[in-house]
Amino acid sequence: MEQSKIDRINFLARKSRESGLTEAEKKEQQKLRAEYVAAFRKNLVNTLESTIVERPDGTRLPLVENNKLNKKLK
User: Fold this and answer.
1) Could you give the CA distance from residue 49 to residue 43 in angstroms, rounded to a whole number?
2) Which residues pair with 60 in a beta bridge?
3) Element (H, E) at 49
4) How many other β-carbons are positioned within 10 Å of the β-carbon of residue 33?
5) H/E element, 50
6) So what's the pLDDT on residue 63?
7) Cα–Cα distance between 48 and 64 in angstroms, integer?
8) What's the CA gap between 20 and 35, in Å, rounded?
9) Cβ within 8 Å of residue 13, ≥6 positions away
10) Do residues 69 and 61 lie in contact, with contact meaning Cβ atoms separated by under 8 Å?
11) Which of 31, 35, 44, 74 is the most exposed place for a label (fewest CB within 10 A)?
């Protein structure tokens, strides 16, 4: 997400606390927050997909495969 949009989210949050927002600003804030959350989730998924787990026996598995293996072992 662009820094300018994050700055706008922060500005709207400050304004909301200090003097309130117009209906148009509330809608803009909701839209920007939804976009921020979507970007955050996408980044988190990418991070988890690229995470490698090293098991005690020295084997290294991607986190996704490690979770599948753990479910089979239970």
Assistant:
1) 10
2) 54
3) helix 23-49
4) 13
5) none
6) 78
7) 8
8) 22
9) 29
10) yes
11) 74
